[in-house]
Write the C-alpha cells for this entry.
Amino acid sequence: MEKTRREDFLHYVWKFSLFEKEGLVTNDGQPIRIVSHGTHNQDAGPDFVDARIHIGHTLWAGNVEIHHRASDWFRHGHGQDVAYDSVILHVVEHDDQQVRRTCGTLVPSLTLKFNTALLDNYEQLLRTKRWVFCDESIAGVPGLVKEAWLERMVVERLERKTSSIEASLAETSNDWAAAFYVALARSFGASVNADAFEALARSLPYACLAKHKSSLLQLEALLFGQAGMLEGSHGDEYPADLAREYSFLRNKFCLEPMDASAWKFMRMRPSNFPTIRIAQFARLLNTSSTLLSKIIETGTVGELKGFFNVTASPYWDTHYRFGKESKSARKHMGDVGAGTILVNTVIPFIFIYGKMNGQPTLQERAVEFLGRLPFEQNQVTSRWVGKVPGCDNAARSQALIHLEKQYCLGGRCLQCAIGSCVVRTLG
C-alpha cells in the first residue's frame, strides 16, 4: 500500500479509537491516558490539533502527528519546522527512530497496535476493480449511515461552490450585485461556454449594463459587441443596428471586445448556442430589476424558476446565429435550463448570503430548494441509482456528484462514513 494511504489508514484508526487501549505507554515506558484525540486537521501542520493527553503525571494540551515510520518525521522536514514544536505525541506504526523538536527536546512516541483485520479489509477494498471501491459492498451499509452522510455531502457541495463566490466578492469589494452578475453569466454559458461567458462578464462591468438596462437593444449591443460577435457584415438590419449602437457604447465605456473564436458552437443543440444564451441573458437583465434581492426574499422554487423563464428578443425567433435564418421558434429558457441555473448559481448564492450575513434560515432554505428540484440525470448520478436512498431530487444528485468527485475518485474511503463502515464490516 502506498505511504499516503497507509497514513490515511493510521489517521482513521487514531480518529475512531480503533487501537488497543489497555495499558497504553510511550515507547520509553511512560503511561498514557487519552482525554481527547484532537480534531483531524485537513490543512498544513500536525495531523490532529487540540488534543489532550496524560503522559506520565502531566496533562498535555497540543497536537498529535502520525507516521508509518517514526523516521518519516525527519523525511518530512518536521525536525526543522517550528509548527511541529507543539506536537505532544508522535503516533507511529514502526518506532525506528527518536524524534526531536527544533529546540532539541524529545517528542514522546506511541506505537499504535490494532486489529490487522481492519487493514486487510481496507486493502481488500482498494483492490476492488469497480467504478468506486465500495460498489460491491455499499448495499450492506445501513440506510441511516448513507442518508446522514449524503446530507452532509449536500452542505459540503454548497460550501465548495461558494468558495468561488467569496473570491468574486473580494474582487468586487463585496458588491453582491456585481459578483452575482459574473456568476450568473458563467451559468448561462453551461459547461461548454462557461469560461467564455465569464470572460465576457469580466470584460463588461455590471455598472455599464446597469446604466442601460431599460433598453434591450443597448443591452444586446453591449453583450454581443463585447463578445466579438458583431464584427463584419451579417446581412440583416438587426445586427447592423446592434453594431452601430455598440460602436457608440464601446467608445463611451472604453471597451475592448473579446475574440469571437472563444465561443463554441460545435456538438451542441442550437437552442444552447451562445448567441441564444446571450440574447436570453440580455432579456433577463432587461426585465429583472434588483434580481438578487428578489431571489433572497423568494420563498418557493416556482417563484425562483419564474425569474429565469425568459425569452430571447423577436429576431431570434427565426435565427440561431446572426445572418442565418431558421425555422420560426420562440427561444425560451425552459424549466430544465432554469433549474440548472438555480442549482449551479442561484442556490449557492442564497446559501453564501445566509452564511455571510448571519441568516442560517437562508442556508436551510437553499438546501430545501435543492430538495424540491428534479434529480439530475448524468453519467455520475445514474451509477448511484438503486445503491443509495432518495435519488429523486437535486439535493441528492448534488450530494452524489460531490461524493464521487471529492471522495471516491481520490480514494478517500476512510474519510467517508460509507467507506469507513465498509472497512469495519468487510471480510
User: Anything to note?
Assistant: The longest strand covers residues 58-69. The mean pLDDT is 92.
